[in-house]
């Protein structure tokens, strides 16, 4: 591969037809290939199907209309996350529409014999947080869910991607999907991250560098020494945001870090099966001489704490830079930049640091895991949120919440003036009561800064790492978290005492 | 249930300019609080329309009844919500033409039998300009040739062969086709170690 001439890559990278061979994506695709369909699409077997209350009810209605049954009830797992309130989760839910959606999910799961992790399971939470926790997401699987952030599970070396509701019906009915094979782009990130720089910053940096549509038609393989050194929760953050670069799936090759995470999880294999599983999983990692459709290399040392300033995740900048002027951007991006300045009420040429923030949200499938809460708590501990700031933490799952409470993180946040909530998707997309009002500006650890995303048609979102959200909550303005971390050697791991 | 082949799309156009228009904008999340897709057509682009006070293309009287939506780059990015193409469809759109589409959005459109065709930026600009200047023009789009015809002009468009074949042959609603491969589905499951919890006696 290293011997290949640059012009070869030019042809490989710009071809219409995928040419990759020997990558994890190629191997998993071949193993799950059921049949070739007219016109060249592939029928692909789906190993794990995850469902939730928002994108499944219509799929069950279609099944009923067509008198179809669920082909493999044991391969679909449900939870409730998008519409759940994060304060009072007593039934019936206060919002009758939310209650109707939850009731429909319960009925559909009961009617078809599907596992549902509801409030009383002790395992409820955001679908992309609970499936890894349970050990359901495993290397070599194909994983589909009616949610675009299904790419998260690629952290395990799975081919995981979001689907629409009609496709949810197809998976329920046939445990398979009609799909076109993607090309594979390897994104190698080398070196180590500086203190105060997190997986979220890496994700935003990649999207900023490559753009929000670079990944259309591609699976993104994340590799390099920086990714190899990441813990599973960091890899999940990185793969979670692949879709924000346009890549329907992103993945990391399975390694010992992955196996150590999975070992002893409730749904992971055990005993002799565990040893056979690890052998199989290892064999699926991309070969040393694998051929990619495209390759990109990045230096982790260049990555600073990163913040979005606009209305797409690619409109991002290092926290110590100034907001780019139109003439600093490629001509094709200038109209969207003009729209972003107007919508965000931010001026090109000004620093982003110091921008006043109204609401601080820590949570979501991107950054609602235990390590995220630890990173934020390290910043918050012994400090107070700024006057008038609304700041809240929404753990990604009941397991995350309990583990955090066991460590006393809930108290760290509460003493600083944060609200400690119950698990759900919350203000990432504001389908529950957590939302922005009017033109409020949020510092958010979630994944999308689209216009109106957080529940107000004129609300504004700045995406950043949980530690950066914590820093904004304390200062009341966008703040370089490195100024609050002192001389901490490694800020990315370990419980807060 | 076998869907009908889709060979031809006809009707007036509606142009919506801008790159990276995401599915949250096409249908804001609050309208997803329902167990059916009914009524979504009324709320398509709800926030953008409210912000433009009746000047949004979807509000303009001359575009009512339009069938072909003409957009720019990376249309439908973001959330996988099928509610987005459902809302467009229920408003009256039957085909989307643009510079490029987000992948999940395009596959959701295909599942509804709503073709997404790509065109060069120059061609898309011309089509959008024509629609703005003469909104009454009727277009005709035979899917077999992927060429848009209108006012004696022609624009070659592109579509991947898979979706094109599925639409033309009437198997765009894939369930029946997928279920017809029962033996192949069983064989595939058998060769996946995890399907049997990594049991040794396979």
Average predicted local confidence, pLDDT of chain B: 95
Global mean pLDDT of chain A: 94
CATH architecture of chain B: Alpha-Beta Barrel
CATH homologous superfamily title of chain B = Aconitase, domain 4
CATH class of chain B: Alpha Beta
In total, the number of strands of chain A is 19
Shape, principal axes of CA atoms of chain A: globular
Largest sheet of chain B: 7 strands, mixed
The CATH architecture of the largest domain in chain A would be: 2-Layer Sandwich
The total strand number of chain B stands at: 7
CATH superfamily of the largest domain in chain A: Aconitase, domain 3
Give the tally of structural domains of chain A: 2
Q: Which spans of chain A of ≥5 residues are poorly predicted at pLDDT below 50?
A: 1-15
What is the count of structural domains of chain B? 1
Summarize the main sheet of chain A.
Answer: 5 strands, parallel
Rg of chain B over CA atoms, rounded to whole Å, is 19 Å
Strand order of the largest sheet of chain B: 4-3-2-1-5-6-7
Terminal CA distance of chain A: 47 Å
Offer a few descriptive terms:
heterodimer; A: 497 residues; alpha/beta; Aconitase, domain 3; 5-stranded parallel beta sheet; 32% helix; disordered N terminus; B: 202 residues; 7-stranded mixed beta sheet; 8 helices; 7 strands; 15% strand; globular
Protein architecture, described:
The complex is a heterodimer of chains A (497) and B (202). Helix content of chain A is 32%, strand content 16%. Chain A is of the alpha/beta class and 497 residues long. In chain A, the strands form 5 sheets. Chain A has a 5-stranded parallel beta sheet, sandwiched between helices. Chain A has a 5-stranded parallel beta sheet with strand order 17-16-15-18-19, with helices on one face. In chain A, helix 7 (199-210) packs parallel to helix 9, helix 14 (370-380) packs across helix 16 and helix 14 (370-380) packs parallel to helix 17 (466-475). Chain B has 202 residues and is an alpha/beta fold. Chain B has helices at residues 23-26, 46-51, 83-91, 103-111, 121-133, 161-169, 175-179, 182-190; strands at residues 8-15, 68-70, 95-98, 116-118, 138-142, 147-150, 153-156. Chain B has a 7-stranded mixed beta sheet. The model of chain B has no long low-confidence stretch (mean pLDDT 95). The interface between A and B is large, with 84 and 68 residues.
């Amino acid at each position: 591969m290293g011997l290949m001439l640059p012009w070869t890559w030019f042809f490989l990278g710009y071809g219409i037809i995928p040419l990759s061979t020997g990558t994890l994506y190629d191997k998993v695709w071949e193993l799950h290939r059921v049949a070739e369909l007219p016109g060249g699409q592939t029928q692909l077997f789906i190993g794990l199907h995850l469902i939730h209350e928002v994108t499944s009810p219509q799929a069950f209605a279609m099944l009923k209309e067509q008198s179809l049954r669920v082909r493999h009830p044991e391969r679909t797992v449900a939870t409730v996350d998008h519409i759940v309130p994060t304060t009072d989760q007593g039934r019936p839910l206060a919002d009758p529409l939310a209650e109707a959606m939850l009731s429909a999910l319960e009925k559909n799961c009961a009617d078809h014999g599907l596992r549902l992790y509801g409030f009383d399971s002790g395992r409820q939470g955001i679908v992309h947080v609970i499936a890894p926790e349970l050990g359901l997401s495993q290397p070599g699987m194909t994983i589909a869910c009616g949610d675009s952030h299904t790419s998260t599970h690629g952290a395990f070396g799975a081919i995981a991607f979001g689907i629409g509701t009609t496709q949810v019906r197809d998976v329920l009915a046939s445990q398979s999907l009609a799909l076109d094979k993607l090309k594979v782009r390897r994104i190698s990130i080398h070196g180590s991250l500086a203190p105060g720089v997190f997986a979220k910053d890496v994700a935003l940096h990649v999207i900023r560098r490559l753009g929000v549509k670079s990944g259309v038609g591609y699976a993104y393989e994340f590799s390099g020494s920086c990714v190899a050194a990441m813990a599973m929760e960091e890899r999940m953050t990185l793969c979670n945001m692949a879709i924000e670069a346009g890549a329907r799936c992103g993945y990391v090759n399975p390694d010992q870090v992955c196996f150590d995470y999975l070992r002893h999880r409730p749904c992971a294999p055990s005993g002799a099966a565990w040893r056979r599983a690890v052998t199989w999983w290892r064999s699926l990692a991309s070969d040393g001489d694998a051929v990619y459709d495209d390759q990109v290399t990045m230096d982790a040392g260049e990555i600073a704490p990163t913040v979005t300033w606009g209305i797409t995740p690619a409109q991002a900048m290092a926290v110590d830079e100034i907001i780019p002027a139109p003439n600093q951007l490629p001509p094709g991006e200038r109209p969207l930049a003009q729209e972003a300045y107007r919508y965000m009420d931010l001026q090109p040429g000004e620093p982003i640091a110091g921008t006043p923030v109204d609401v601080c949200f820590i949570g979501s499938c991107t950054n609602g895991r235990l390590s995220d809460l630890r990173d934020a708590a390290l910043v918050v501990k012994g400090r107070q949120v700024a006057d008038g700031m609304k700041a809240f933490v929404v753990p990604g799952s009941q397991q995350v919440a309990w583990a955090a409470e066991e460590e006393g993180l809930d108290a760290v946040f509460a003493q600083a003036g944060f609200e400690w909530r119950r698990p759900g998707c919350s203000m990432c997309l504001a389908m529950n009561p957590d939302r922005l009002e009017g033109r409020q500006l949020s510092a958010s650890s979630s994944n999308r800064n689209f216009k109106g995303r957080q529940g107000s048609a004129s609300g504004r979102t700045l995406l950043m790492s949980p530690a950066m959200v914590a820093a904004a909550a304390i200062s009341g303005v966008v703040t370089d978290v490195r100024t609050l971390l002192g001389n901490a050697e490694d800020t990315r791991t370990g419980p807060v005492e | 249930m076998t869907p009908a082949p889709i060979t031809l799309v006809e009707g007036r156009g509606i142009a919506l300019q801008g790159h990276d228009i995401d599915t949250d904008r096409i249908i804001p999340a609050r309208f997803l609080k329902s167990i059916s897709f009914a009524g979504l057509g009324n709320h398509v682009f709800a926030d953008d329309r409210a912000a433009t006070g009746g000047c949004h293309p979807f509000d303009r009287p001359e575009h009512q009844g339009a069938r072909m939506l003409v957009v720019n780059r990376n249309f439908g990015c973001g959330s996988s919500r099928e509610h987005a193409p459902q809302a467009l469809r229920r408003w009256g759109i039957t085909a989307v033409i643009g510079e490029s589409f987000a992948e999940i959005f395009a596959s959701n459109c295909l599942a509804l039998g709503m073709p997404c065709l790509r065109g060069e930026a120059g061609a898309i600009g011309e089509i959008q300009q024509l629609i703005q200047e003469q909104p009454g023009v009727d277009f005709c789009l035979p899917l077999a040739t992927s060429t848009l015809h209108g006012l004696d002009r022609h624009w070659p468009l592109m579509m991947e062969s898979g979706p094109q074949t599925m639409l033309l042959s009437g198997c765009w609603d894939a369930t029946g086709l997928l279920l017809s491969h029962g033996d192949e589905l069983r064989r595939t499951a058998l060769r996946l170690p995890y399907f049997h919890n990594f049991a040794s006696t396979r």
